[in-house]
């Protein structure tokens, strides 16, 4: 039996734009998905979504992992048990975390000797096949941890501030939101492409402030990024209410994180304002989660 875990993630910059090759800054967070893999007489996948065999409807990511790993090991029967701290379909990278943790658990269980780069690449291929179009960001950051500039795959300094996540508790499908942006871009390329370009430019502008722990400058750019996500149609009333509640309660910045449409916002806060920001988020009926950037990507668990 092997247990591995992988972190979720928040985007400081670049979600959706990164799908079109623009840069993003994404950071792993200390909320993890744990996957236990045990050799078994059949394939069983147990999660909060149910207990199934290979099932590409209920467990598309985990089933795809098992199918891919059959190319590296003789997997006749395996029991996969999943426990996660990440809300499903909420923009915190739950699909990437379960994909990467399952890949590494099977890699270790069957001694396939895949390296971390292989785990990240196979994970990206699986997300792309399921979502129709996916950047390498979520699976790379879940594999490697830390704060990463994508597609350059350049590690930045770990964040030294509090992260406050506001969860609308309204799940969304990344596949659908990525498709909606693609349709808008196809209809108005001269409008949407400059927006995506500017999101990518902000990620590059923010690299130095992040590396010198200048979260005031980083936060100003994050707030602009939020406005541009609204412009490409992935915002919503609940998300904006959370963003303004967080900002008005003293957050350094607040923006949508992940695919949007529902899901979560992320706010940067300092030690003194974090609890006030969390209270403001709860006061409008959402879930507030205090977390921090984690340096640790996918790892073996005792
Ligand atoms: N704990 C889990 N157990 C099994 N499958 C999971 C789990 N968490 C996520 N998944 C899979 O990932 C899917 C959600 O992925 P999706 O990309 O839509 O949302 P997300 O990854 O949470 O958000 P984002 O991609 O915007 O960060 C679920 O429908 C399920 O197939
Ligand atoms: C919306 C998106 O940019 C991030 C989802 O967490 C999709 C992707 O990068 O694959
Ligand atoms: Mg996902």
From TrEMBL:
GO terms for cellular component: cytosol
EC number: 2.7.1.36
Limits of the GHMP kinase N-terminal domain: 61-146
Pathway: Isoprenoid biosynthesis; isopentenyl diphosphate biosynthesis via mevalonate pathway; isopentenyl diphosphate from (R)-mevalonate: step 1/3
Localization of this protein: Cytoplasm
Cofactor: Mg(2+)
Keywords attached to this entry: ATP-binding, Cytoplasm, Isoprene biosynthesis, Kinase, Lipid biosynthesis, Lipid metabolism, Magnesium, Nucleotide-binding, Transferase
Chief site of localization: cytoplasm
Residue span(s) of domain GHMP kinase C-terminal: 214-283
Active site: 138 (proton acceptor)
TM region positions: none
Single annotated GO MF: ATP binding
Catalytic activity: (R)-mevalonate + ATP = (R)-5-phosphomevalonate + ADP + H(+)
Domain (Galactokinase N-terminal) ranges: 3-37
Enzyme class: transferase
PROSITE patterns: GHMP_KINASES_ATP
Positions that bind ATP: 87-97
The organism's place on the tree of life at top rank: Archaea
GO biological process, any: isopentenyl diphosphate biosynthetic process, mevalonate pathway
The keyword Ion transport belongs to this UniProt entry's keyword annotation: no
Gene3D superfamilies: 3.30.230.10, GHMP kinase, C-terminal domain (3.30.70.890)
PANTHER family noted in UniProt: MEVALONATE KINASE
Role this protein plays: Catalyzes the phosphorylation of (R)-mevalonate (MVA) to (R)-mevalonate 5-phosphate (MVAP). Functions in the mevalonate (MVA) pathway leading to isopentenyl diphosphate (IPP), a key precursor for the biosynthesis of isoprenoid compounds such as archaeal membrane lipids.
Subunit structure: Homodimer.
Family per record: Belongs to the GHMP kinase family. Mevalonate kinase subfamily.
Protein name, entry field: Mevalonate kinase
Organism: Methanolobus halotolerans
Lineage: Archaea, Methanobacteriati, Methanobacteriota, Stenosarchaea group, Methanomicrobia
Gene name in the database record: mvk
């Amino acid at each position: 039996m092997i247990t591995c875990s992988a972190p979720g993630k928040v985007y400081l910059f670049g979600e959706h734009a990164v799908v079109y090759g623009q840069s993003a800054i994404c950071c792993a967070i200390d909320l993890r998905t744990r996957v236990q893999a045990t050799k078994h007489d059949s394939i069983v996948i147990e999660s909060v979504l149910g207990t199934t065999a290979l099932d590409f409807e209920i467990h598309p990511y985990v089933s795809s992992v098992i199918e891919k790993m059959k190319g590296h090991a003789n997997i006749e029967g395996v029991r996969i048990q999943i426990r996660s701290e990440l809300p499903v379909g909420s923009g915190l990278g739950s699909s990437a975390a379960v994909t990467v943790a399952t890949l590494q658990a099977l890699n270790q269980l069957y001694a396939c000797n895949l390296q971390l780069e292989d785990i990240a690449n196979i994970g990206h291929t699986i997300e792309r096949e399921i979502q129709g179009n996916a950047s390498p960001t979520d699976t790379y950051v879940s594999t490697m941890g830390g704060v990463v500039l994508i597609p350059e795959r350049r590690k930045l300094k770990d964040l030294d501030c509090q992260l406050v996540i506001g969860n609308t508790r309204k799940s969304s499908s990344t596949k659908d939101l990525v498709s909606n942006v693609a349709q808008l871009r196809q209809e108005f390329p001269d409008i949407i492409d400059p927006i995506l370009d500017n999101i990518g430019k902000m990620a590059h502008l923010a690299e130095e402030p992040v590396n010198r722990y200048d979260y005031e400058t980083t936060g100003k750019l994050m707030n602009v990024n939020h406005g541009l996500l609204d412009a490409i149609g992935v915002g919503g009333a609940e998300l904006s209410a959370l963003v303004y509640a967080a900002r008005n309660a003293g957050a350094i910045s607040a923006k949508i994180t992940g695919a949007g449409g529902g899901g979560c916002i992320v706010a940067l806060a300092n030690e003194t304002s974090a609890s006030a920001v969390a209270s403001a988020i709860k006061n409008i009926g959402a879930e507030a989660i205090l977390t921090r950037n984690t340096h640790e990507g996918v790892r073996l668990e005792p």
